[in-house]
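User: Hi! I'm working on a homework problem where we have to compare a predicted structure to a textbook description. Could you give me the structure for the chain below?
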Amino acid sequence: MAAEVFEIDYVLRASPRILYDFVRQPTHLSQWFCDTVDYKGDEFIFMWKGYSERAILIDDIEEELVAFHWENSHEDEFFEFAISINEISGDTVLTINDFAEPDDIEDQKLWWDNQIQKLIRVMGG
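Assistant: Happy to help. Predicted structure tokens:
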């Protein structure tokens, strides 16, 4: 079975500038996304309790978009953080696009929900 893309939106109380730092900077990513991050240039190694995955930064638009490609995933698979402002409410919206096997999408969404709750806590929201 091929992995499928899915999208989740989160409304956050943070400016696009602050949110961008939390989804781009290794020191901030290690506060909510993973336990630690090693990086060199566009290569990131994310670690969780003894497990690690290497990703390459494939897109980086300040205050708008950060995207990574996992080393061991299909060429066209990625995960990205898109930052936007809701035109009506003025809220900052974080949209996560990720890939998972169809049977794993709901579990992956729950994982993201948990990580975003950590992000909200570390940003003080």
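For your comparison, note the following. The chain has one domain: 4-122. Residues 69 and 75 are 8 Å apart (CA to CA). Good luck with the assignment!
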